[in-house]
Write a structure and sequence with these properties.
- The complex is a heterodimer.
- Chain A is an all-beta fold.
- Chain A contains no helices and eleven strands.
- In chain A, strands 2, 4, 5, 6, 9, 10 and 11 form a seven-stranded mixed beta sheet that branches.
- Chain B is built from no helices and eleven strands.
- Chain B starts with a strand and ends with a strand.
- Chain B is globular, with a radius of gyration of 14 Å.
- By secondary structure, chain B is mainly β.
- The chains are: A mainly beta, B mainly beta.
- Chains A and B meet through strand 4, strand 5 and strand 10 of A and strand 5, strand 9 and strand 10 of B.
């Protein structure tokens, strides 16, 4: 199975900050990487698929990059509604679909 | 409105069973592959099972293989997860999620673009 490792596991940031979250795959997954946002008590929301394609309706301050084993989710200017937990997920080799452990973005 | 609504969760004793349901609306359910994903309290996301649009192709996570059974009834716009031999570690919120498939030059990108609100399963004596 492909293991997905996110870093950091949590971070504190202020509104307006640029935030970067990293996801590393245990083997190459080409660009088959998705990012999700989850707020407390809510279902996850797909933000980015194919490593860098923005899902419909997602603000352009979110962007994704990377290929192979190393990927990045960037929030260019953190907004109050962006405080949440973010998960990466690989779809290169399934089953199983595997998620990273999550990165909690908290208010500084 | 595109929507998935789960039901069927509850409190069950170890070794017990439940049937989780997920009803779809606002889209052509029979055209989409579907998944079940769970989240234990305070933990991350854990993919459980996949079913193709027609139901002929099915996958399971090793952790639930032989205990959980996914199925669907396209005439009823419904997805199901039969969960048997429940253990304390199966306590979680269970989500159904629609598969997004986007064609690219290198193949299909798959994600989960529509999620239900979740149904809670608690396994305890």
């Amino acid at each position: 199975d492909i293991q997905m490792t996110q870093s950091p596991s949590s971070l504190s940031a202020s509104v307006g900050d640029r935030v970067t979250i990293t996801c590393r795959a245990s083997q190459s997954i080409s660009g088959f990487l998705n990012w999700y946002q989850q707020k407390p008590g809510k279902a996850p929301k797909l933000l980015i698929y194919g490593a860098s394609s923005l899902q419909s309706g997602v603000p352009s301050r979110f962007s994704g990059s990377g290929s192979g084993t190393d990927f990045t989710l960037t929030i260019s200017s953190l907004q109050p509604e962006d405080f949440a937990t973010y998960y990466c997920q690989q779809s290169f080799t399934t089953p199983p679909i595997t998620f990273g452990g999550g990165t909690k973005v908290e208010i500084k | 409105e595109v929507q998935l609504v789960e039901s069927g969760g509850g409190l069950v004793q170890p070794g017990g069973s439940l049937r989780l349901s997920c009803v779809a609306s606002g889209f052509t359910f029979s055209s989409y592959e579907m998944n079940w994903v769970r989240q234990a309290p305070g933990k991350g996301l854990d993919w459980l099972s996949y079913i193709s649009s027609g139901g002929s192709s099915i996958d399971y996570a090793d952790s639930v293989k032989g205990r959980f059974t996914i199925s669907r009834d396209n005439a009823k716009n419904s997805l199901y997860l039969q969960v048997n031999s429940l253990r304390a570690e199966d306590t979680a919120v269970y989500y159904c999620a629609r598969t997004l498939a986007v064609a690219s030059l290198v193949g299909y990108y798959y994600g989960m673009d529509v999620w239900g609100q979740g149904t809670t399963v608690t396994v305890s004596s």
